[in-house]
Amino acid sequence: MATFFPLYTSCSLLFLTTASIFLPTNNGALVDDVCRQTTDPPLCLNVYAFDPTIQNETLPTLAAIALQVAELDANAIKIKLGALSNSTNDPKLKALYGQCEKLYVDAFAVLKAAVGDLKGRRYGAIKGKADRAIGDVGRCEAAFKNSSPVRKLSHELEVVAQALGVIAKSLSR
Fold this sequence. Notes:
By secondary structure, the chain is mainly alpha-helical. The protein has helices at residues 4-22, 28-36, 41-48, 59-87, 91-119, 123-143, 151-171. The protein is elongated, with a radius of gyration of 22 Å. This is Pectinesterase inhibitor domain-containing protein.
């Protein structure tokens, strides 16, 4: 009987340890927590809703997804602004489109550089780059008095960059 108890305890601990590896974690709470800290939590949650397995991912993976979405948004906005600039004869609009296009070129470059920071675990640098992308979005929207023709996609980029900043801040602790 004396040898049964330690053996039973060891087997129980082994089972619990193994089960915790294979059972889903509560990382869904990670997504909820990150998105709750943005200005538009439902939109943020929607960005991560494309894959139900995302609920089991880690913060670095959530950051990588945010970076991919933000880069795609910035590039799409840049392309749209270029097309709008080419399609207008209004010099004021052409100048506004050009100004905003340059801001989104910068946002795209900054976000692209943040990919290397993520690989290098330079989370403070990622937070700074996320803030810079948010600033670029804000400057473009301010130029259009918050009614730019790319407002919807700009808002998504802003929220995703906010999520990226929240994640980077959490990882740098």
